[in-house]
Amino acid sequence: MIATTRRAALLSAFATGALAATPRLAFARQTGKAGAAIDQFAQEVMAAFPDEPGLGICVVEDGQITLAKGYGVRRLGGADKVTDSTLFGVASNTKAFTAAALAMLVEEGKVAWDAPVTQYLPNFEMSDPIVTKLMTVRDLLCHRSGLTLGAGDLMIWPNPTHSRADIVAGLKHLPIGGQFRGGYAYDNVLYVAAGEVIAAVTGAPWEVFIQTRILDPLKMTDSVPLPSLIGSRPRAEPHARMGPPVRGLGPQTVLPFDGSFDSAGAAGGLNTTPRDIGKWMQVQLGLGAAPGGVRLWTEASGREMWKPQTITAWSDGPTADNPVRASLQAYALGWFVNDHRGEKIVWHTGGLAGFISYTGLLPGRKSGIMVMTNAEENTVFRSLRYGGPDRLQGRSDFDWIASSKKVQAEADAKTVKDAAEAMTPKGGGAPPTLPLAAYAGTYRDPWYGTVTVSVAGKGKKARLKIAFDKTPALRGALETFDGDTFKTRFVDRSQEDAFVVFSVKDGAVTGATLRAVSPLADFSYDYQDLKLTKI
Fold first, then answer.
1. Helices (H), 33-128
2. Whole-prediction pTM
3. Which residues pair with 58 in a beta bridge?
4. Residues 208, 213, 214, 218: is their CA dihedral positive or negative?
5. Average pLDDT, whole number, for the chain?
């Protein structure tokens, strides 16, 4: 663990911008060069990884948009090209919009960063009453609540029917797995609560505030705060490798588009385009001021949103294999902050089914890059995530394409090994200890709701089925695997399957716990947080 004095020194450097000391005048003379270099690099990446269907990229240099372009196609095998007006889901890059909305309300005196959440949401409750009392608006945004990674995400993913009120009400049942303000664990559900704070003090839903107070003033006319609002606008289609043996391997596949992420809009609902997102990057780099005289928030608020709040990672710094490895990384308010080759970088990633995105800002240069992809291709994403900021700094001395190929090959080999191990029954594939009918029934988890297990067919043809009652996508067969452990086989094969481990006491089933089958399963499939009791 880093010594407190060193941690404080690094945080001070982040807050004051000491890591970005290069004079901006030097950058101004070169404006446009980084955009051209990134354009060329994007074409090289697309050529190196031909399974990537499409990309959208925007570059801002010294406050000016110098590249807003689409690459590839909206759907693999299709003819529709990605253009600068193609919509992509940018998922958690939305979080910075939610933080900005709150900053604007703080300036108006309607919200205070360090006021208790219960002041605005009287029914807000965490599972620990002390945490409930101490949780502030600031705490909602910086992943230090004590919740475990992705806790409660099955209330927002994949396409459940939980309302925003349901999600906030479910918080009181999520266990505190860490120390409040004592560590970092990324969450989404508290951003939903942050959106409800905005709604409570303005009298309008989160998406109305984002539309009227951010998108409209910036003339982001392509963008929508929720996927359900896309309508007939041109959008990219999501893609992923669906196996075998697990998601992340195998051939590229077009996924069904999930246009119903509305309940979790404040955590990840924004859909935007290469030509629109540059306006957002400009106002961020301008600390609230956009070209044309529009100011959305004060410079002080801009700096507040970039001020590190929670240490997320630390290391010994760059290596030969990873020259941009940060010595210290922190989470601010809707943004990560760390060093990139000696300069402060403010960034965030986003991931939804079939989409990955990245925003990286170099405040000392008033420059940044946004990358939007319509496939879960880590090689493409990693190459541009690091190679893009390198080129903003005027350098291309590291082969991120080759590095990403190497890293992915190693990861794929490990995944194949881990998947084979996960799919090997430890008990040799023993039969269930009880008749199948004994496992049937309704099971309840206090934060998620109910899961129904039923029997289909009779006699030797009898089979179990499972339905996550508030998530239509999570329904299908429940296959025998190893004793009282069963395995789901959801009808929608784009979903991650789970092992269901039934608890048996005195010859009767009392409940069940779950875990994802795939070692690559996204953390938002937080099956492990379910504690099902048979009712």
1. 33-48, 95-107
2. 0.93
3. 68, 370
4. positive
5. 93
